[in-house]
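Progress note, sequence design subtask.
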């Protein structure tokens, strides 16, 4: 009986603890470079985006079938 109570108390204690909220902001980024990545069996595009305000670069990967013109702007989430 004691082990069951200890296990229930542990589950309640862990369940009640909260994770601190993640704060993000939406920033505008512009596509500045497109590279082709060759891996073992496949090819992918590596897109490099630059934050217009803070000059931070972000990288994303897409399939070869998707097209993005240079200069395209999108909103990305950045932690505060």
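Output:
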């Amino acid at each position: 009986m004691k082990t069951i109570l200890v296990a229930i108390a542990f589950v309640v204690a862990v369940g009640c603890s909260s994770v601190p909220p993640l704060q993000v902001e939406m920033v505008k980024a512009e596509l500045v470079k497109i590279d082709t990545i060759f891996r073992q069996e496949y090819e992918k595009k590596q897109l490099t985006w630059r934050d217009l305000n803070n000059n931070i670069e972000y990288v994303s990967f897409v399939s070869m079938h998707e097209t993005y013109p240079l200069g395209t702007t999108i909103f990305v989430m950045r932690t505060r």
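Strands lie at 24-38, 43-51, 57-63, 73-79. Work on this subtask will continue into the next period as scheduled.
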